[in-house]
Amino acid sequence: MTVTIWHNPACGTSRNTLAMIRASGEDPVVIEYLKEPPSRERLKDLIAAMGITPRELLREKGTPYADLGLSNPSLSDDQLLDAMLAHPILINRPIVETPKGTWLCRPSEAVLDLLDHPVAEFVKENGEAVHRVGGRNA
């Protein structure tokens, strides 16, 4: 199975997600999207695969979201995509793609439902224990 994670190593949620993928026996393709941003078409494909809108993928915290006036509801999807492409930090993360689906994995344990052999237990960086009981799609 091919697993791809759009990753930001400075983000704890992204680091935990990547660690859960690896602990589950997968060797994912890791794309540090701040260094290698997606193309416009790739970003549109990711958004479509997740079944969300560009606005739902926007990250507010720690980004130029407010400075750019992105809360304005009159902005079009194309304008929001333009902002994310100009400022990749606006793309929320981590996005994980597997044959089972493409999801924004917030919280990080959401990734477990995308994996063939997810770990049953995992301890996040902050010490929070994750115990998998069933699944998101179960």
Helices and strands, with pairings:
Layout (H helix, E strand, L loop, with lengths): L3 E4 L4 H12 L5 E4 L7 H11 L3 H4 L19 H10 L8 E4 L2 E4 L16 E3 L5 E3 L7
Parallel strand pairs: 1-2
Antiparallel strand pairs: 1-3, 3-4, 5-6
Brief sketch in words of this structure:
The protein has 138 residues and is an alpha+beta fold. It has helices at 12-23, 40-50, 54-57, 77-86, and strands at residues 4-7, 29-32, 95-98, 101-104, 121-123, 129-131. It is 27% helix and 16% strand.
Kindly describe this structure:
The chain has helices at 12-23, 40-50, 54-57, 77-86, and strands at residues 4-7, 29-32, 95-98, 101-104, 121-123, 129-131. Helix content is 27%, strand content 16%. It has 138 residues and is of the alpha+beta class. Strand 1 (4-7), helix 1 and strand 2 form a beta-alpha-beta unit. It contains four helices and six strands. The mean pLDDT is 95. The chain has one domain: Glutaredoxin, CATH 3.40.30.10. The strands form two sheets. The chain has a four-stranded mixed beta sheet. Strands 5-6 form a two-stranded antiparallel sheet. The radius of gyration is 15 Å and the shape is globular.
Mean model confidence by pLDDT? 95
* Uncertain stretches: none
What general form does the structure show?
Answer: globular
What is the number of helices? 4
Instruction: Report the top-level CATH class.
Output: Alpha Beta
Q: Kindly estimate the percentage of residues that lie in beta strands according to DSSP.
A: 15-25%
The CATH architecture designation is 3-Layer(aba) Sandwich
Question: How many structurally independent domains?
Answer: 1
Strand line-up across the major sheet? 2-1-3-4
Overall number of strands: 6
